[in-house]
Write a structure and sequence with these properties.
alpha/beta; Rossmann fold; 2 domains; about 20% strand
Length: about 280
C-alpha cells in the first residue's frame, strides 16, 4: 500500500515556491502598471479640466483677472496691448514665453519680466524696469548700471553725461556699452554709493587709456584703474578704492583749491600744475 495512504493523509495538490528573481520581476511589473495607470488617469483629468473646460480659463474682466506690477514708465494698458490680453481670451491660448521674449526685444527699458498663470482665470505680470544712471547723448538716451542703453525722457536732466568717440553718438536703444564707455557707466554707478560725497557732471570716455572726469564743482581729473576694461567684481573694488583716494585728496585742505588732478597710476593721486592738461 502507498505510504501516503498508510498515514491516513490525502494529497490534494502541490505548492511550488517561485524563485526570488521572478518575484521581484512581478513586483516591479505591478508597480509599473500602477504608475502607468495613475499617469494616464492624471493626464486624462488634466485634459478634461484644463483643455476642454474652456469657460473656466477665460479672462472675463481684465481689471480683476490681470494683475500687472510695473515701474515708472510702462502702464498696465500698454502691457495688456503688447501681450494681447483682452476679455474672452483663454489663458492657455496665450504663448507666454513667446510674448515675454517679444516684449523684452521691443522694450529695452525692461530688465526683467515674469508672466504667471493663476488658475483658473488669473494672470500676474511683474515687470522690473531699468533705472538710468547716466545720459549717453541726445534724444533721451540713457544707460543703466549694466551698460544697456534705453530711452527715458522724464527726470534725467540731472544725470551725468557720458561722452565717447564719434561713433558713440550713434548708439541705439537696446545696445550695450563696451570698452571705456562701459567703464564710465561702472564708475558713475559706484559714485551713487551713500558713502560717496561727490557727484560727477560728465565722463569723457573718448581717450584710450583713461577717463576724463568732470565733477559737479567743475574740477576735473584723469582717472584710470587696473582692469578698467574688465567687467569683474574684483576690478570694481579696485576702482572704488582708487576713486575714494582721489576724492580724499581733492577734499583735503591742500587739495580743495586745485582744479586739475591725475589719478591714472595705481595707488597714486596728485594735483596737476595750473595750465597743464
Amino acid at each position: 500500500m502507498n505510504r501516503f495512504a498508510q498515514s491516513g493523509r490525502r494529497v490534494t495538490g502541490v505548492v511550488t515556491d517561485l524563485p526570488s528573481g521572478v518575484k521581484l520581476a512581478l513586483a516591479l511589473a505591478a508597480c509599473a502598471a500602477v504608475l502607468v495607470i495613475s499617469v494616464w488617469g492624471v493626464w486624462t483629468l488634466f485634459t478634461v479640466y484644463y483643455f476642454r473646460a474652456q469657460s473656466l480659463f477665460v479672462l472675463r474682466d481684465l481689471r480683476s483677472s490681470v494683475v500687472i506690477v510695473t515701474g515708472r514708465t510702462l502702464t498696465p494698458d500698454l502691457i495688456c496691448e503688447k501681450l494681447g490680453l483682452r476679455e474672452g481670451v483663454n489663458l492657455f491660448a496665450i504663448p507666454i514665453e513667446q510674448k515675454r521674449r517679444e516684449l523684452l526685444e521691443q522694450a529695452p527699458n525692461i530688465r526683467e519680466i515674469s508672466i504667471v498663470r493663476r488658475m483658473p482665470d488669473k494672470l500676474t505680470v511683474t515687470i522690473v524696469e531699468r533705472e538710468p544712471i547716466a545720459r549717453v547723448g541726445s534724444h533721451g538716451r540713457v544707460v543703466d548700471e549694466e551698460g544697456v542703453v534705453f530711452i527715458r525722457y522724464a527726470g534725467t536732466g540731472g544725470l551725468p553725461l557720458i561722452k565717447g568717440a564719434d561713433e558713440f553718438s550713434q548708439i541705439k536703444p537696446g545696445e550695450r556699452l563696451h570698452g571705456n564707455e562701459l567703464a564710465a557707466a561702472r564708475l558713475i554707478h559706484s559714485t551713487l554709493r551713500p558713502e560717496c560725497s561727490v557727484r560727477l557732471l560728465a565722463v569723457d570716455a573718448s581717450k584710450l587709456d583713461y577717463l576724463m572726469l568732470t565733477f559737479s564743482d567743475y574740477r576735473q581729473a584723469k582717472f584710470a584703474w587696473q582692469g578698467m576694461s574688465d567687467d569683474l567684481k574684483e576690478t570694481d573694488l579696485r576702482m572704488q578704492r582708487h576713486f575714494d583716494n582721489l576724492v580724499k585728496a581733492m577734499e583735503s585742505e591742500i587739495g580743495k583749491p586745485r582744479m586739475m588732478w591725475d589719478a591714472t597710476l595705481p595707488e597714486r593721486v596728485f594735483a596737476m600744475p595750473v595750465g597743464v592738461q
